[in-house]
Design goal:
This protein is mainly alpha-helical and 104 residues long. It folds into two domains: 1-62, Arc Repressor Mutant, subunit A, CATH 1.10.10.10; 65-104. The chain contains four helices and no strands. Helix 1 (8-21) crosses helix 2. Keywords: Coiled coil. This is Transposase. Residues 64-91 form a coiled coil.
C-alpha cells in the first residue's frame, strides 16, 4: 500500500468543495466520493480531511489539530525531562560514591 502525499492547498480546496456542495448530494459521503473522483484524490483521505475540518471548526466533537499538536509537544517535552531526570539520578549516584568512599 503506497501513500500519496497531497499538497495542503489541494486538501484545503477539496474540503472547501465538500463543505460548499454537500447539500447538493443525498449524503455527505456521496459528496465526498464525487469530489474525490473529480480531484483525483482518495475518497478515504478526503473523508478524513473533512472530518478533521469539522472537528477543528467545532462542528464535531474531538481533539482539534491545535490540541493534537500541543499534546505531541508535551509528550516530547515529558520524554526529554524523563531522560534528563535519569541522567541526573545517575550523576548523583556516581558523585555520592566518589565523595563517600567505603570505609575499612
Amino acid at each position: 500500500m503506497s501513500t500519496k502525499r497531497y499538497p495542503d492547498e489541494l486538501k484545503a480546496r477539496a474540503v472547501r468543495m465538500v463543505l460548499d456542495h454537500r447539500e447538493e448530494y443525498p449524503t455527505q459521503y456521496a459528496a465526498i466520493k464525487a469530489i474525490a473522483q473529480r480531484l483525483d484524490v482518495g475518497t478515504e483521505s478526503l473523508r478524513l480531511w473533512v472530518k478533521r475540518a469539522d472537528v477543528d471548526a467545532g462542528r464535531e466533537p474531538g481533539v482539534t489539530s491545535q490540541e493534537r499538536e500541543e499534546i505531541k509537544r508535551l509528550k516530547r517535552e515529558n520524554a526529554e525531562l524523563k531522560r534528563a531526570n535519569e541522567i541526573l539520578k545517575s550523576a548523583a549516584s556516581f558523585f555520592a560514591r566518589e565523595l563517600d568512599p567505603p570505609r575499612k
